[in-house]
Amino acid sequence: MESKLEVRHLTERVGAEISGVDLARLSDEDFATIRATFETRHGLLFRGLDLTDDGLVAFSRRFGALDHAPLMETGRTAVDGYPEIYIVSNVKDDQGRAIGSLGSGEAVWHTDMSYLENPPYASALYALEIPPNGGATSLCGMAAAYQALPEPIQARLKELRIKHDGTYNSGGYVRQGVSEADNPVDAVGTFHPSVLSHPATGEPMLYLGRRRNAYIEGLSLADSEALLDEIWSYAALPENTYVHEWQIGDLLMWDNRATMHRRDPFDASERRLLKRTQMQSITAPDGSN
Ligand code: OGA
Ligand code: MN
C-alpha cells in the first residue's frame, strides 16, 4: 500500500510534524523516513495520538533501547512496572504528593540528563492533560546556535569542555541523592565537549546542557562565567526556536544533542500531565563508550 506519510517543517531550522501514519502499525519504510527526518530536523511532532503506556514505550523503543527515568523529586519512580516512563506533572495525589516532576514553574533551557557520562540521545514527551494557558515547550536548534556564534568563539570552543551540572533539574529542584551546591567549580556534574558533531550528518552543534552551575574546564570562575554568558547569548535565538503549544494527544520528540528545550510556567491550580521516555545513546558525546 502506498504510504500516506507527510512531513511538514515546524520552523525553518528545527522541527517537523509527521502525519498520515499509525504509530502502532508503522511500516519499516515509514519508520526509516521518520528516523531520517529526525536526524535532519532534530525535533518531531505527532498529533492526535491515543497512546497507552505500552504504546508509548513500544514506539519509543523503535529508536533504540530506553534509559530508565530519573527518580522523581519525591524519590520515587513514576509509574509502577514502567521504569522507562518519567512523569512531568504538577498534579498531586490524594496525600498531597506530586505524581510527577518539574512543578508548574518555568523549566529553564536544558538538555535531558546530560549530568551523566552517557546521556539519552533523545526524549519523547506525550501529553495527557494540558492547562488552558501557559506551559508551552520550546526547542532550540544547536546546529543553528553553533552557526550563529562569531568565528573566533567557534574556534576557541573546539578545545574546551563544559561541565553539565548534576545538582539541579530544569525546574530548579535539587536532584535525588545530591545536596545543594552553587559553586560551579566544585558542583557535581560531567564535563562534555562544548561542540559535538552530529553522528548522522556530521554537523557541528553547540553543547551546553544548562546554564546554572556550568563551568568551562581550566578557566578561572570569572573567565568561565564571562565566556558562558557570551556563548549563551547565541544559544536560543528566536529564529532558531520552535514554540510548541500543546494539545492532548501530542507527542514531541527532541534530540538531546542537537536541541535544548524549556517550558513556560503555567497556573499552579491547573492540571498538566505528560509522560516521557528517553532513548539510550550508543556512544557518549565525546565519542567514547
Ligand atoms: C522534559 C521537560 C518540559 C515540559 O520532559 O524533559 O523538560 O514541557 N519537559 O514539561
Ligand atoms: Mn527536559
What's the SSE blueprint?
Elements lengths: L5 E4 L6 E4 L8 H14 L1 E4 L6 H9 L4 E2 L18 E4 L11 E2 L4 E4 L11 E8 L7 E5 H7 L2 H7 L3 E5 L23 E5 L1 E3 L6 E3 L8 E2 L4 H12 L8 E4 L6 E5 L3 E5 L9 E7 L10
Parallel strand pairs: 2-3, 5-6
Antiparallel strand pairs: 1-2, 3-16, 4-18, 5-18, 7-17, 8-16, 8-18, 9-15, 9-17, 10-11, 10-14, 12-13
Bound molecules: N-oxalylglycine and manganese (II) ion.
Manganese (II) ion binds next to loops.
Descriptive report:
With 289 residues, the protein is of the alpha+beta class. It has a single domain (1-280), classed as Double-stranded beta-helix (4-Layer Sandwich). The protein has five helices and 18 strands. It has helices spanning 28-41, 53-61, 142-148, 151-157, 221-232, and strands spanning 6-9, 16-19, 43-46, 66-67, 86-89, 101-102, 107-110, 122-129, 137-141, 161-165, 189-193, 195-197, 204-206, 215-216, 241-244, 251-255, 259-263, 273-279. A hairpin with a 6-residue loop joins strand 12 and strand 13. It is globular and about 55 Å long. The model has no long low-confidence stretch (mean pLDDT 94). The protein binds N-oxalylglycine and manganese (II) ion (MN). N-oxalylglycine (OGA) binds at residues 88, 102, 107, 112, 123, 125, 137, 170, 261, 263, 274, 276.
Briefly, what is this?
This protein is of the alpha+beta class.
What labels would you give this structure?
single chain, Double-stranded beta-helix, nine-stranded mixed sheet, four-stranded antiparallel sheet, 5 helices, binds manganese (II) ion
- Using only CA atoms, what is the Rg? 18 Å
The N- and C-terminal alpha carbons lie at a distance of: 41 Å
E-strand count: 18
The CATH architecture name reads: 4-Layer Sandwich
Oligomeric composition of the shown chains: single chain
Low-confidence runs of at least 5 consecutive residues:
none
Q: What ligands are attached or bound here?
A: N-oxalylglycine, manganese (II) ion
CATH homologous superfamily assignment:
Clavaminate synthase-like
Question: What count of helical segments does DSSP give?
Answer: 5
Mean model confidence by pLDDT: 94
| 3D shape | globular
How can the largest sheet be summarized? 9 strands, mixed
For the record, the count of structural domains works out to 1
**CATH class type:** Alpha Beta
